[in-house]
């Protein structure tokens, strides 16, 4: 039997499977998706088995053998192996990088050198040769120390040098000599970073009657043995030894005595570290659905029933009860004997969220998020591999849960940018979910109050009639039980300044906060620090300096005191006065949460504030503790960054204030308006979710901006129309697709040359392709943006320009933006182009990274 193995070296030369022989004794354990240790050059490497076969194209005599199989149950399955190949093609990354992304950190390869006894025959042959050679045989008359060390190694099989020296602290020089003499050999092995935790369990090994009968026969002084037998006559469940000796006050010796008689059994079993151990989850039963919920669930249920593949976009306003729809769909999926994956953004994976799922499905749920310890993550993941659970709820990477009977994948808050991984493999969990579901004949439900434009366009058929890739739209427009959406007040901060109010709180918000304190209701204040100080805005008129070529705000670069465009490279000096109204109140924008907290304390003495930002939530569990305190009414105000905007469901929150809505709006990103709309809608959605009605204040310098106007009117439809128009005109997603290529190098001149060469080569590639397609493809593709001639395919390379962050870790960065549409094999062209730079990459340490459908353009 032969195995094809992808090894743990992310390079172009090794980005293919290598053939190995599967030794007879490993056949039982090996499968597609197994992790193995294989000889590769002079080393032993970790690898993944991607195929098994009875034949090989290689001369089989030359093939090396697989040395180790690392797991009894393969951690991946054939579907995931196939998915890795798809990822490597789609996201232009190495297959091993995709495979590694699918397993928890604890299983990433760790290499270790160990010592073992040399093969006996080999050793004897050597001794003989040496002896003939000149009477060196004396050396081999082993000393007692040598005997002791050899015996130790023989007993252990393999030991690390550390373990050896721990046992024989003085043996360093001797060990070295024995290695040189060939008594020992050094082997490299692959090891896990983490081991399953085990414990000894005691169980009865005879029937209750036998146990009782035997206890009668025991002599009177064997009181403890008697007790133990009688206890197990009544308790048939295995119990950890430690617990047992504690409980019954017996020694391990007593247990052993009975085990030796065959009355009890002692076995080693795996323990699972349970991050939620000792927590009670109140059992919940399905709610009676509202008519809207029923309407949304029905088509999903149908698709599940027929075991078909289908993608649904559930657009439900905040508080419309999306979670209950998810829960009931999952129930159906489980009833079919299939498995479900639920993805939620890391930040909203709060105890509240976990409670909802554990409360309904109990111990069938595994939870995966980055706040678990590595051991806990590993154990939750093993529950999936060992089929102990059938639901996993987790952040982005849980999309790789190694289930093999997936019926349903849910992505809550599908618009969240955290579903995109920003380092290689730069995948989007939404696309991966759809790919997996297609394989399994499973349903995907994407839920959001503010769907991404990409998803909405697919669901509404705006991208043309092509049925492939179509999502089905499900709408829930009302909050449950007819609760109203909160009233939103947009406050013009320019007017506040004119009226002499220089505080960061408008008069309206100030008054509303005071009222909440009086009524003992709670408030949420949002201060988005993202984009802090990066754009320049006039405080008198709201003017923001923009690029004359790109309609995108310029970014302030503090070092050079210039303003630059991240898209085209345009740059100008920082203005001293406002180009629009000549006011001198033009400055970098932004206030920190700490300053807001101070001002609150000044304005409302005695106010209790919980501040939630990167500073206060860095500790493990801090995020949850803060939220629990707020829920338990230990504070009047929850103040924070985006973290406070999402997923929270607190009954007494009746006021939401947004300190400055503009901070996101002017980010140099074509998604700035979309992100603003999403954030405002989400945070507003925290108010008045229960009995008490809610109120929202949005403070802004640009009250007329459509994203703010539409968010305050809870009008997703109106926002969508305007935004889609703009995207179409400017040539952005969802009408066009983007790939961001970033090149980096220590020296600017080489980087500039490489960047230029890369762009022109890529253009040639397209030129070639375009000619091959015949006439109807205009060479001047710019004029073609709004115009679908031919099959509407379009391809353009922008740049290279310096990246928005032009140097990281002493490496300079240049980027090209690729914009395309239609039937263009961009991944293929990029791979071909990049291949031409292999030498520069290898010899001159140029790096080229590609981001397909980038979410962050900086
Ligand atoms: P969303 O995720 O859509 O913002 P949630 O799922 O958090 O909304 O639901 C909002 C509130 O409505 C929750 O407190 C939830 O328990 C409650 N709820 C949901 N469905 C129903 C229902 N059918 N009947 C009564 N209450 C419901
Ligand atoms: Zn520009
Ligand atoms: Zn101005």
Describe the structure.
The protein is α/β, with parallel strands linked by helices and 858 residues long. The chain folds into six domains: 2-112, GIY-YIG endonuclease (3-Layer(aba) Sandwich), CATH 3.40.1440.60; 113-184, no CATH class; 197-271, no CATH class; 291-482, P-loop containing nucleotide triphosphate hydrolases (Rossmann fold, 3-Layer(aba) Sandwich), CATH 3.40.50.300; 487-530 and 592-730, Rossmann fold (3-Layer(aba) Sandwich), CATH 3.40.50; 737-852, Alpha-Beta Plaits. The chain has a seven-stranded parallel sheet, sandwiched between helices. A hairpin with a 6-residue loop joins strand 23 and strand 24 (571-573). Bound molecules: adenosine-5'-diphosphate and zinc ion (2 copies). Residues 538, 540-541, 543, 578, 580-581, 583 line the site of one zinc ion (ZN).
Strand arrangement across the biggest beta sheet = 14-15-13-16-17-12-18
Give the percentage of residues in beta strands: 15-25%
Structural class call reads: alpha/beta
CATH architecture level-2 label of the largest domain:
3-Layer(aba) Sandwich
How many domains comprise the coordinates?
6
- What is the CATH H-level superfamily of the largest domain? P-loop containing nucleotide triphosphate hydrolases
Task: Give the cofactors and ligands.
Answer: adenosine-5'-diphosphate, zinc ion
Number of helices: 27
Mean pLDDT across every amino acid position: 84
Number of strands: 33
**Residue share in helices?**
25-40%
What is the overall shape?
globular
Specify the biggest β-sheet. Answer: 7 strands, parallel
